[in-house]
Q: What sequence folds into this?
DNA sequence: CGGATCGTTGACAGGTATCAATGCTGGTGG
DNA sequence: CCACCAGCATTGATACCTGTCAACGATCCG
């Protein structure tokens, strides 16, 4: 965690209660009273582009909720190569493996400036033993992990490079309702899809030439009618 | 569930208490008393090769523990193609997504004759609200799903076909301590690795010629020193 | 302005899909 | 018991796709 910027900290769950993404997040089912059970601070951080939220080496003491931005979960191979195994968007949980007391399973790196809430494991355990309202959300989160992983596998590792890039663009487009979405670097696209940087670049360039894709800065729009 | 063979049914958890794979399974932390909470039968079935344990269409009422054999979880694509997204071996859970009351996420098909225990969702929910001993195992199961999915992604979708087949053989070899393991059909190997049946066949044949691999019936041995 | 990083493009070799034909094997019925 | 069949495995030929190595362009930032 190089240069994490702390934005806020508080003792109760007052802010959580009125959180703008609460309906997406872990605490959506909690009742007013449940928030009084929070005895450890939940902090909000901004992770700048390229910084790590956590790494595989870190002892896992916290679960994170993504409030805005995007996080990549990276698995490094022995040979120095790496593969991006998942992308996390607002409402997703990062590091739920912390609930098992183990270490984190990935390197979590910000693709954009990303706001997160850092929830101590003890808070979740305490809530779990004192209110029944969290359990369901946790189960749902685990299931989302499973189903995301499957979609990932099926959509992004099947077919030739062109199909995979197209599927990735559609997937990224789903992330954002504003019509444009963050386009990762060609190297990251390669790591996402298991192809080389050059192949990723060629295909993105081709899509731009054909008018399927417009890119400005790092933001992209696609013309879905042409897919 | 075409021709599922029922082997046993019982009311209490007597058999679970003395189950030979209990240390691998969901109930490993349960105490003697906890088993008295089981008020619905847990049945044991044998699923013959090729039969379905469940499909995506099925309402998810049960979680299954694999006692022996092997199950493939299959995700079908719209175009009729399919991809195997995970293999389940003894001790693994199938269909934990049932705990969310949803439908199953995959087709679960037996690759070998497979013994399973069928646990009603209600049993798990009841245990969860009456004893604290199950929660940890459930969390561990969810985490295993996540970590298996990542290993799968990293080991079996990276590199060229030869490397992937080699990794798959090593992965399958881990399944069985008896020195030999079940070798899937070439078509299934293709669906596991995202390559064509022909490519899978060519590489398996090459490994056999080179002496890396011996196959008898559907059982295989590998010479790890040559990998 | 200069350097660093990222993106694009070309040439070529090697890998993979595709289409097609042929071998192999286990199971079935005569 | 044997012949036959269906399904699976193997192999070949070819076109296409992708990785690799290399060069150059674009953009950002100090």
A:
């Amino acid at each position: 965690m190089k240069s994490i910027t702390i934005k806020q900290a508080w003792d109760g769950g007052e802010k959580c209660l009125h959180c703008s993404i609460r309906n997406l997040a872990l605490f959506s089912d909690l009742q007013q009273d449940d928030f009084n059970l929070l005895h450890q601070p939940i902090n909000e951080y901004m992770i700048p582009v390229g910084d790590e939220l956590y790494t595989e080496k870190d002892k896992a003491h916290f679960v994170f909720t993504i409030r805005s931005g995007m996080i990549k979960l990276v698995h490094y191979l022995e040979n120095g190569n790496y593969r991006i195994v998942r992308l996390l968007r607002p409402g997703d949980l990062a590091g739920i493996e912390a609930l098992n007391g183990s270490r984190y399973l990935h390197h979590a790196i910000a693709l954009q400036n990303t706001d997160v809430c850092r929830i101590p494991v003890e808070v979740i355990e305490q809530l779990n033993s004192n209110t029944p309202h969290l359990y369901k959300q946790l189960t749902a989160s685990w299931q989302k992990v499973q189903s995301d992983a499957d979609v990932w596998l099926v959509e992004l590792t099947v077919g030739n490079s062109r199909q995979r890039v197209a599927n990735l663009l559609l997937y990224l487009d789903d992330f954002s309702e504003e019509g444009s979405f963050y386009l990762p670097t060609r190297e990251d696209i390669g790591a996402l899809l298991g192809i080389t940087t050059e192949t990723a670049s060629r295909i993105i360039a081709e899509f731009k030439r054909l008018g399927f894709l417009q890119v400005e800065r790092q933001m992209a729009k696609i013309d879905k009618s042409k897919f």
